[in-house]
Amino acid sequence: MSVEKVTCPVDKTLNLISRKWSIQIIRDMFFGKKHFKDFKEDKPKLSNKVLSSCLKDLEENGLIEKKVLNTTPVTTEYYLTEYGRSMNRIVYELAMFTLDDELDDTYPEDKRAELKNTFKQTLNIED
Fold first, then answer.
1. What is the DSSP string of 53-117?
2. Which of 12, 64, 79, 108 is most deeply buried (CB count within 10 A of its CB)?
3. pTM (predicted TM-score)
């Protein structure tokens, strides 16, 4: 699925990442996941077919690159491109949207602080 030409930059960005699972896969890559099976670890509803298609779309849109290693058996790894890594602020802000919401009681205050720090460090967000 290639990104269609749009005039609004918000629309273009959403076209890149709005496919189900795309932003979670990008997030996982920031946190070190790089193998097909890694992306499925905590997503039981994510089928192999959908994951494969999503990875292909992200690659076609220049957000990730696929490296096939000459190992036995052959190993495939996925990495964020520089363009994909530039989404760090988007992923961070998505996390902060929930973690800064005082009405959301999903996380106790100490866990919120820990998660904020983890996302900030992992995504290389500077103040």
1. HHHHHHHHTTSEEEEEE--SS-EEEEEE-HHHHTTHHHHHHHHHHHHT-TT--SS-HHHHHHHHH
2. 64
3. 0.88
